[in-house]
Specification:
Layout (H helix, E strand, L loop, with lengths): L3 E5 L4 H13 L3 E6 L19 E5 L5 H11 L3 E4 L6 H6 L2 H22 L4 H6 L1 E7 L23 H20 L3 E6 L1 E3 L8 H10 L4 E4 L5 E6 H14 L5 E4 L4 E3 H15 L12 E4 L14 H7 L7 H14 L1 H8 L2
Parallel strand pairs: 1-2, 1-4, 2-3, 4-5, 5-6, 6-10, 7-9, 8-12
Antiparallel strand pairs: 9-11
Length: 342
C-alpha cells in the first residue's frame, strides 16, 4: 500500500537531507511542498528529482486552500513540517517574514490538516501524524551549567526563536484542543552538506577558501551544541515511526563547542586538506566583529529522552561530522557558487 509523507520546506537544508534519507531508507512516497525562497534550493534535490517516489510542488504553507487540495489528492499518512524562516540575523533585520511563515504558516497548515483529517475514517485519523520540527532556541539562554530538557520553560530572545516558540505552542494546543496526533522535536545547531552559506560553518569554509575574513561575533565564547544533519534526519524518522502523539523530543549531538572552537577546528581541517598558497594557517583570517543583539550565551540539549524511549543516538562525533562536512564543501564548490549567485 502506498504511504505518502507531505514534507513542507523540503528544498531547505534539513528538509533536503531528510528527503534523500527517507527515499533511501524507507518505502515512503514524498510530496515536497516548498515556496523556494532564497534558502530553498532545487540543486539540493537534484539527485532525487527523477525518483519515482518523489514529487515537488512549489507553493506556500500560508496558502490553506493549496494545502487542503494537496492533502485531498495525496492522502498523506503524515506531515513533516520543516518550512520556516530560520536565520537569527535576518530575523533581527526583518522580523515580519518570520511572523508570517513560522507563526501564520504553521497556523494555516494546522487548520488545513484539521479540516482534511475530519473526512478520514477513524482508523486513519488515529494513524495520522503531524511532526513539527523546531529548535532549542525557544528555551532561551543557559548559564555555564545545565541542559535544556523537554520540560525547560520557554524564554526566546530573538524574533526568530519567538516565532518558533509560538508555532510550538500552536502545535501543542491543536493536540490538546482538537486531538490532532502531533509530534514535536527541538534540535540543536545542525551542520553538514547542503547548508545555506549564511550559516556559521559553511560561511567560514567558503570565506576561508576565498581568502576573506572569518567574522566571529564578540569574543567567540558563545556555546552551541552541534548536531550532524544526517543524525538529525535519522532522529526525525525515528520519532515519526515510533514517537508517542502529544510528546516532544529534544535532539542533540552531545557536542558543546564555542564558536571560536568551531572556527579553529575548521581552519585546522582546511590547513591539512587544502593549504593556503602562502603556507600560513587559515586562522590568520579570523576577525572579531561586534556581537549581535540578544546573542544567547549557551545552548545545550539533554537528549536522554529520545535515547531512552526511542533508542536514537547520534552516529557522528564532532570530529567525524566536521571532516565529512568540509570534504563535501570542497567537492561541491559549484553548488555553493550557484547558491550564492542566486
Amino acid at each position: 500500500m502506498k504511504t505518502t509523507l507531505l514534507i513542507t520546506g523540503g528544498a531547505g537544508f534539513i528538509g533536503s537531507n531528510f528527503i534523500r534519507l527517507a527515499l533511501q531508507q524507507t518505502e515512503f512516497h514524498i510530496l515536497n511542498l516548498d515556496k523556494l525562497t532564497y534558502a530553498g534550493n532545487l540543486d539540493s534535490l537534484q539527485s532525487v528529482e527523477q525518483h519515482p517516489r518523489y514529487r515537488l510542488v512549489q507553493g506556500d504553507i500560508c496558502d490553506q486552500a493549496l494545502v487542503e487540495k494537496l492533502m485531498a489528492e495525496a492522502q498523506p499518512s503524515a506531515i513533516v513540517h520543516f518550512a520556516a524562516e530560520s536565520h537569527v540575523d535576518r530575523s533581527i533585520d526583518g522580523p515580519a517574514a518570520f511572523i508570517r511563515t513560522n507563526i501564520n504558516g504553521t497556523f494555516s497548515l494546522l487548520e488545513a490538516v484539521r479540516s482534511w483529517r475530519r473526512s478520514l475514517p477513524e482508523a486513519k485519523q488515529a494513524a495520522f501524524r503531524f511532526l513539527h520540527v523546531s529548535t532549542d532556541e525557544v528555551y532561551g539562554s543557559l548559564g555555564e551549567t545545565g541542559y535544556f530538557s523537554e520540560e525547560t520553560p520557554y524564554a526566546p530572545n530573538s524574533p526568530y526563536s519567538a516565532s518558533k516558540a509560538a508555532s510550538d505552542h500552536l502545535v501543542r494546543a491543536y493536540y490538546h484542543t482538537y486531538g490532532l496526533p502531533v509530534l514535536m522535536t527541538n534540535c540543536s545547531n545542525n551542520y553538514g552538506p547542503y547548508q545555506f552559506p549564511e550559516k556559521l560553518i559553511p560561511l567560514m569554509i567558503l570565506n576561508a577558501l576565498e581568502g576573506k575574513p572569518l567574522p566571529v561575533y564578540g569574543t567567540g565564547r558563545n556555546i552551541r551544541d552541534w548536531l550532524y544533519v544526517e543524525d538529525h534526519c535519522r532522529a526525525i524518522l525515528t520519532v515519526l515511526t515510533n514517537g508517542a502523539p502529544g510528546e516532544k523530543y529534544n535532539i542533540g549531538g552531545h557536542n558543546e563547542k564555542t564558536n571560536l572552537d568551531i572556527v579553529h577546528a575548521l581552519c585546522a581541517i582546511l590547513d591539512a586538506k587544502q593549504p593556503r598558497p602562502d603556507g600560513k594557517s587559515y586562522k590568520e583570517q579570523i576577525t572579531f566583529v561586534k556581537d549581535r543583539p540578544g546573542h544567547d550565551l549557551r545552548y545545550a540539549i539533554d537528549a536522554a529522552k529520545i535515547e531512552r524511549e526511542l533508542g536514537w543516538t547520534p552516529a557522528e562525533t564532532f570530529e567525524t561530522g566536521m571532516i565529512k562536512t568540509v570534504d563535501w564543501y570542497l567537492q561541491n564548490r559549484e553548488w555553493s557558487q550557484r547558491i550564492i549567485g542566486g
